Amino acid sequence: MGKRIVVNAGVTETRLAVQDGNLLTELYVERADRRSIVGNVYKGVVTNVLPGMQAAFVDIGLSKDAFLYAGDYTANLGVEEHAPDAEDVTADVDVGDAEPEPRREALAPIEEMLRKGQEVLVQVSKEPLGTKGARVTSFVSIPGRYIVYMPQARHVGVSRRIHDDAERDRLRAIVRDLPPPPGGFIVRTVAEGKGQEDLIADIGFLSRLWGQVQSRFESAQAPSLLHEEMDVTFRVVRDLFSPE
Length: 244
Description:
There is one protein chain. The chain has a 5-stranded mixed β-barrel with strand order 4-5-6-8-7. The chain is built from 4 helices and 13 strands. It has 244 residues and is α+β, with helices and mostly antiparallel strands. The model is unreliable at 84-100 (pLDDT under 50). Strand 1 (3-9) and strand 2 form a beta hairpin.
């Protein structure tokens, strides 16, 4: 029978099951009033800077201000000069598979980088929980079908779910040899066996999307949503299924 998805979509929630043959392998539930905001990109306004915590609160238009650590902030929307090269990074993970990354070392004290009222571009990295607002970062990652694009990084990684070393080297070489937009890339599991044209198309799409986000940041009034991640149905199809 192969792999398939079964979707039950109602007014209040969407339930999605992934089956491999007759075996249920994954189950997702997304409520309409609690839709995930992880991956959303916002133009926010700094409401408070906390030197003692080396963090800031940012209004992104939600009921609670988001929390931004000093190490998660950069004013640079392009490749960071301090960004490590591929040899210095362990990026061999698929999106959603990674353990939380250790907090980055801040480029400077928070009070030297941010001030109250400053507008910032941030992406939600962790959902709001209880009385806590969302955690956000200025280091953006945009997932595509085969590639995750990280505009401020340098490295090229390959999903650790691709076990064949020759295939991993092939995919890494394709991305490194392309004239892609500046930044870093992670090749996703579903890219296994795909050719150069597929990866070029995905990188081109992600580059254009990032360009749109930057343009919206320049013109939008803060706080505002610049880019919204797909709902659960489209995310699962994008992340787990290939045309075959």
